[in-house]
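Closing statement on the calcium ion sub-project.
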Amino acid sequence: LFPQVGHERKVQLVADRDHLIRTLSLKPLLFETPGFLTDEECRLIIHLAQMKGLQRSQILPTEEYEEAMGTMQLSQLDLFRLLDQNRDGRLQLREVLAQTRLGNGRWMTPESIQEMYSAIKADPDGDGVLSLQEFSSMDLRDFHKYMRSHKVETSELVRNSHHTWLYQGEGAHHVMRAIRQRVLRLTRLSPEIVELSEPLQVVRYGEGGHYHAHVDSGPVYPETICSHTKVVANESVPFETSCRYMTVLFYLNNVTGGGETVFPVADNRTYDEMSLIQGGVDLRDTRRHCDKGNLRVQPQQGTAVFWYNYLPDGQGWVGDVDEYSLHGGCLVTRGTKWIANNWINVDPSRARQALYQQEMARLAREGGADSQPEWALDRAYGDARVEL
Ligand SMILES: [Ca+2]
Ligand SMILES: [Ca+2]
């Protein structure tokens, strides 16, 4: 049923030409379409993004994190057990590395963890492993103090880029509308789903920019709610996450050096979180280990790559997050890299997605300031005139 890797099929996305869809991997289900955008469209998107202005994609949220850790009411022993994935009663470096949240936005490497250990004297025998005794005698306040005082370079962040959002709904620039229609044809999803998805995110990576490997959607737990449908959910739940059924990523320029998109575990036979980090090599690290990832896509202006972030639930709807969709932006070694993301939002709760679509349709009929989802209100550049 699934196309083989390398399989190509023709589709008609625009009136005057055919496009090719090439299968890049089955896990995740990943494809590429060269020439999805014309060079002129790429330049226009970059231009609109520059006119609007880009902001830093990540800043460090220090105090909030400490507070959150404090309110979790986790004893130090609980924390130890949580971290000790292989339950051998010791914390190996990779078990600490796997908990990216401990880094509080700062990307942890084997070196930075050992640096931290020695600064707070957490590993007196210096073997890089924390025994239960070593962990118990460590004062977590020293850890927080260290994280707070440590000056973080942008190269040490999980994500080192700038971005902005471009509106694509009714009244948007005609090219932005045309791209949304093309995405609709590419994905063969319903117009309601595509039209009610996030605006286009435009991202610029300067020389030295990167985005370590991550999945685009959060996990599906009962206590989690999707950002896009939360307006219709009566429940108040503690966690909010992006529910991005599909990612459609566009390369807006040719990058002089680096900047590939890496899928470290694409088409692995099995997925094992711990095997991502072995022998001091963290395959999620896109500054150092992109070359060891299973699949790398070279940026080529106008090409779209697209994949599914969720597995099917077997009943025609969205199931669990597909761990194989792990991907990242490799270090840009030379020049600048411009990409754009169209995320297609679907709530794993079919009922909530339906309710959301109904409510949005009702608001659109009634008109008024509330007639668009929150993210659609930003349409100031809708009538921007740009020379193509
Ligand atoms: Ca362990
Ligand atoms: Ca030790």
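The first helix runs from residue 39 to 52. With this model delivered, the sub-project is considered complete and its resources will be redirected to Aim 3.
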